[in-house]
Design brief:
Elements: H1 2-27, H2 37-40, H3 47-61, H4 63-71, H5 79-91, H6 104-119
Helix pairs in contact: 3-5, 5-6
């Protein structure tokens, strides 16, 4: 009987804490919205996100060039590969190249190469002025 009387306030306090916690949990509105993979990947938001995924798939197809670039020091990446790297680095998530196994240091090197090769590419030929070739009799 002595044990029952001494533990009664503890049991009452525990019961009250349990009740308040239950009422608090029940009073908040639980909205469970199920999202699709399409929504989680943000594929339906804008055109730019789709180009990010397209660029990632393009980069995946040129991983052979990237491997040779780092292993053999071969300094050539095709224009499609560089376009994919530039798109991913400039317009997409910063860690997206990690999806194909490229770390941040390697992605900086690739981006530097691709940006430099874009700036050093030959400019398109200038149109010939047709009037300068006309001969006067």
């Amino acid at each position: 009987m002595a044990f029952y009387n001494s533990s009664k306030p503890i049991l009452q306090t525990a019961f009250l804490v349990f009740c308040f916690a239950s009422f608090t949990a029940m009073s908040r509105e639980l909205i469970e919205r199920k999202t699709t993979l399409w929504e989680r990947l943000k594929l339906d938001e804008e055109e730019g996100t789709t180009s990010c995924w397209d660029s990632l798939f393009e980069l995946q197809s040129c991983t052979g060039e990237v491997v040779l670039f780092f292993l053999n020091g071969e300094t050539y990446l095709g224009p499609n590969c560089c376009n994919a790297i530039r798109t991913i680095e400039h317009h997409c998530w910063p860690t997206m190249l990690g999806a194909v196994g490229i770390n941040s240091e390697e992605s900086d090197i690739l981006l530097g190469y691709c940006d430099a090769s874009e700036n050093n590419s030959p400019s398109p030929p200038q149109p010939v002025n047709q009037t300068s070739h006309v001969m006067n009799p």
